[in-house]
Each structure stands twice: as C-alpha cells, then as structure tokens.
Amino acid sequence: MKKNRPGMLKKNTIYLLLFLFTLSITSCKSHKKNRHDDTTYIGEQVEVKKKKKEKKGNSIGEKIAAESLTWLGTPYGYGHQEKGIATDCSGLVLVVYELIAEVKLPRNSAQQADFCKDLKEKEIKPGDLVFFATGKDKKKVSHVGVMIDEEKFVHASSSKGVILSEMSTPYYRRTFIKYGRVPR
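Predicted structure:
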C-alpha cells in the first residue's frame, strides 16, 4: 500500500473540491432550467390565467347556477326541498339561495316572484330566476326556475323531477311571466 504524500493529498483534495463545485454548479443550472423550461412556464401561465378566470367566474349567480345543476335528477315532491330525495320548484330555489347566497326566500313561487326585481331578457345572468304561469290562472305565477345562461334553466317539473329546459320551448314561451333577480 502506498503512502499518501502531502502533495498528492493536496492534489486529490483539489480534484475533489473541483468535482463537488462542478457538481453543485450543474445541479443549480439544471434546477433553474427545470424551473423555467417552456413546459413549466406555460403551466405557470395557465395556472395564473385559471386563477384569474376562477375569480372572474365565481360570482354568486354562477355559484347558484352551478349548485342548481347538482340537483338534476332529483324527483319531484310537492312541498319537499331536499336534493336527491324530492323537491318542488320553489323548494329547489329556496334551498339553493339559502345555501349559496345566504338569502331566505319566501316558500312559494308567486311570493318569490314578488320578492325579486323584474329584469328584461337582455339583463339575464346565471342565477337569476324565471317565472311561469303553469296553473289554471294564466296570469298568476305558479312555477319558477333558475337561469343557467340566457337560454337554459333548471327547474322541478312535476312529471320529470329536476331537469334542464330551454326558454325557446313553445310551452315555456307561452307560460312565461317574467325574469327576476333576487336582491342581495
């Protein structure tokens, strides 16, 4: 076995230090490259845009519309208001508004119509309400739905349960009374 000479030890130490220094530089360089490569950067841009969109798209009305959509398929039940179990049209609206907007609405659709501010068709936003006269009295509100966009609304049909319908349907055009916005 050879004895290490002081000069050789010094030389090996220098090589070791150079190796470690080179290793640390390359690892830092690769870390920076990974951090700022196109994929990550694009991902960060997408994430920033997504957050901005979430803030923009998180209005109370949009949350109300989104919650209303989660009720689709709930069976109809007069006087009921429980998602997945049974509900009528005004019960659906009552619970969704209380849950999302923390607004206590009257229990029936005619009183909900009186509670709302009247809207023109061009003013409709997600979460606004739409009222119909589907009973014997063609002038009295007897049905309500939650607008999802300018055309579609969620409501509790007595024959089909909670469904998504369109305002362009002749039946809903014929029975339409008004659009309304719940004061917040």
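Summary: Helices lie at 6-36, 38-56, 60-69, 89-100, 109-115, 170-175.
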